[in-house]
Amino acid sequence: MAKKKAAAPKKKIVFVCTGNTCRSPMAEFLFRYILSKKRKLSLYDVSSAGLAAEEGAPMTENAVLALKKLGVSVRKKHVSKQLTRAEASEADLIVCMTASHAASLREFGSKVKSVGELTGGHDVPDPYGGDLNVYLKTAEYLMYACEDVFAAAQSLSI
């Protein structure tokens, strides 16, 4: 009888912003959406956190609406959380919304990348307090960025 092949460990990807109520949770949901379209979701453990998060806050209403406009399901309820040292240490890739977020996590080495580094583009501006169009522009940029995050995640060796 053939032995079952052990499942490969999942690659841990953490998206990071300031408060974990807009950018990083949108990136988390968008990345999961892209992974599911590519039939690769089972290979990844995707989460998000903030550097100055108020624990337990919901995703902003406009962030949820922007995701829905892009066809991304938001059935799973998001609650904000602070990035812990353990979570950062265990991650295979930490994707920061800005270069300054990445700089504050430089102790974790080369696994920390800003969206701008991965895309060759710019930081993800904070839409907090903006109208739905501001959030939609942010979500569209994150959707584009997630393709580059996927390429970076593919090349990870764990």
Question: What does this entry look like structurally?
Answer:
The chain has 158 residues and is of the alpha/beta class. The protein has a single domain (11-154), classed as Rossmann fold, CATH 3.40.50.2300. The chain contains six helices and four strands. It has a four-stranded parallel sheet with strand order 2-1-3-4. β1, α1 and β2 (44-50) form a beta-alpha-beta unit. α2 (61-69) packs across α6. The radius of gyration is 15 Å and the shape is globular. The two termini are 29 Å apart. The model has no long low-confidence stretch (mean pLDDT 94).
Give a quick rundown of the structure.
The chain has 158 residues and is of the alpha/beta class. 41% of the residues lie in helices and 13% in strands.
Please specify the SSE layout and strand pairing:
Blueprint: E1 11-17, H1 23-37, E2 44-50, H2 61-69, H3 85-90, E3 93-96, H4 99-104, E4 112-114, H5 115-119, H6 132-154
Helix pairs in contact: 1-6, 2-6
Descriptive keywords:
Rossmann fold; 158 residues
First-residue to last-residue Cα separation: 29 Å
Strand content: 5-15%
Rg estimate, integer Å: 15 Å
The CATH class, by name, is Alpha Beta
CATH H-tier superfamily: Response regulator
Q: Give the domain tally.
A: 1
Overall CATH architecture: 3-Layer(aba) Sandwich
Helix content: 40-55%
Number of continuous helical runs: 6
Question: SSE order in H/E notation?
Answer: EHEHHEHEHH
